[in-house]
């Protein structure tokens, strides 16, 4: 199948520079993966650098796409005095750049090396020769974008009812500096340089219209969205996301992930939570206690009621002491759909490490990402976790909620329906 990266490994330029040839390459890449499916091209099986996902489609890629190994997430705020025209032009420019980036191309007309020597290059160049590495770019809109005083963007009346700031939860220690934001970009790929390059260039494009509020660099996925993927482990050493919604479960996606109302039809809502883990305390906890806190065995990942990783927990089973085999305060029990009116989320979390604090303790944890058709799903589950024994070992320090519009079709820009009457 056609791939946008030439045999010499150097990425092609954008459409405007290559003209018809560039357009054909992007179109071929989109055809190869299937419109709106976000599946990787078969070339990725032979060379991971060449795997790619179509940017255009019915839904944004980066939701049901098989979870990649690396993440760079950015929250941005529109600049003071920015207008509706600034917002629309930014979304148009991001759409064009995202189509180039996910196809493994350089950004702009002249890329990193072919422009005027007297002007900054269109592309920063650190991803030259790397290929797309299954890059996906997912864009979201925060509640604050609709709440600006004076409604400078003319969208206040079109704010989705579901896009309401999340309530305060037990044990929240949220920091404003790593919470919320007008806009977000989720970049996921199987190469760390590729995701950094994407966010760097999209942030650069936003200059004068929006600026970065906070970012999170993640590595090592902690969820799976594809049946062919192994269940990964979080930094506590336990398998995470065993019961996650998978990309081939169309019924579950329609019921729990895809929104259906107005301009958000085909979109979703993204919850992003920075969950800091008290690594040192956990590492000094007995294995038996760790397993009771989680509700699963650490090795196999099986529920404490028995079986294998994929065995459904038996919440009625009792141990020889008369207690529930899966403790009443265990994370698995409190978060399970059976005890939450069947509510499910699609998770795409990542581990993160931010170095050490002044006491030499590791600053690390889980960057929790979930997609749902209504944020009330997350609220219900998070509220149920109030008595979770895991709360002794974690701190929720960052939080954000975004409306993720449906995918942009060719010739459209991100969230175009929001601005149409």
Question: What does this entry look like structurally?
Answer:
With 421 residues, this protein is of the alpha+beta class. Helices cover 21% and strands 18% of the residues. The chain has ten helices and nine strands. It has helices at residues 15-18, 20-33, 84-102, 143-146, 192-205, 250-256, 279-283, 287-294, 331-335, 376-384, and strands at 70-78, 136-142, 183-189, 210-221, 268-277, 346-347, 350-356, 362-372, 394-404. A hairpin with a 5-residue loop joins strand 7 and strand 8 (362-372). Helix 3 packs antiparallel against helix 5 (192-205). The longest helix has 19 residues, at 84-102. It is globular. The relative contact order is 0.17.
**What's the mean pLDDT score?**
89
End-to-end C-alpha gap: 40 Å
- How many strand segments? 9
Largest sheet: 8 strands, antiparallel, barrel
Task: Summarize this entry quickly.
The chain is α+β, with helices and mostly antiparallel strands and 421 residues long. The protein has 10 helices and 9 strands. Helix content is 21%, strand content 18%.
């Amino acid at each position: 199948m056609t791939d946008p990266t030439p045999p010499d490994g150097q990425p092609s330029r954008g459409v405007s520079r290559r003209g018809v040839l560039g357009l054909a390459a992007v179109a071929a890449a989109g055809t190869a993966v299937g419109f709106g499916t976000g599946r990787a091209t078969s070339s990725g099986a032979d060379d991971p650098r060449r795997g790619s996902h179509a940017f255009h489609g019915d839904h944004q890629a980066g939701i049901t796409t098989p979870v990649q190994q690396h993440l760079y997430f950015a929250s941005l705020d529109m600049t003071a005095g920015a207008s509706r025209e600034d917002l629309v032009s930014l979304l148009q420019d991001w759409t064009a750049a995202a189509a180039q980036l996910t196809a493994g191309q350089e950004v702009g007309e002249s890329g990193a090396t072919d422009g005027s020597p007297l002007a900054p290059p269109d592309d920063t160049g650190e991803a030259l020769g790397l290929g797309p590495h299954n890059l996906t770019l997912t864009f979201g809109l925060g509640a604050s974008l609709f709440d600006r005083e004076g409604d400078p963007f003319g969208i206040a009346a079109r704010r989705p009812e579901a896009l309401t700031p999340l309530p305060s939860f037990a044990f929240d220690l949220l920091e404003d500096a790593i919470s919320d934001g007008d806009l977000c970009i989720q970049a996921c790929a199987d190469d760390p340089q590729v995701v950094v390059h994407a966010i760097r260039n999209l942030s650069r494009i936003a200059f004068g219209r929006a600026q970065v509020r906070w970012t999170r660099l993640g590595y090592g996925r902690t969820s799976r969205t594809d049946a062919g993927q192994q269940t990964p482990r979080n930094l506590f050493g336990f398998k995470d996301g065993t019961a996650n919604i998978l990309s081939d479960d169309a019924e579950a996606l329609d019921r729990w992930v895809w929104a259906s109302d107005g301009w958000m039809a085909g979109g979703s809502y993204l919850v992003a939570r920075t969950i800091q883990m008290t690594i040192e305390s956990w590492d000094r906890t007995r294995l038996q206690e760790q397993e009771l806190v989680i509700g699963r065995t650490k090795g196999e990942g099986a529920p404490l009621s028995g079986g294998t990783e994929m065995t459904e927990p038996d919440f009625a089973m009792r141990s020889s002491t008369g207690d529930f085999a899966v403790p009443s305060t265990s994370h698995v029990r409190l978060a399970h759909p059976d005890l939450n009116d069947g509510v499910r989320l699609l998770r795409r979390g990542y581990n993160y490490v931010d170095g050490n604090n002044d006491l030499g303790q590791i600053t690390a944890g889980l960057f929790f990402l979930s997609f749902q058709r209504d944020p009330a799903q997350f609220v219900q589950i998070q509220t149920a976790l109030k008595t979770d024994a895991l709360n002794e070992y974690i701190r929720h320090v960052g939080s954000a909620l975004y409306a993720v519009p449906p995918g942009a079709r060719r010739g459209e820009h991100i969230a175009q329906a929001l601005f149409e009457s």
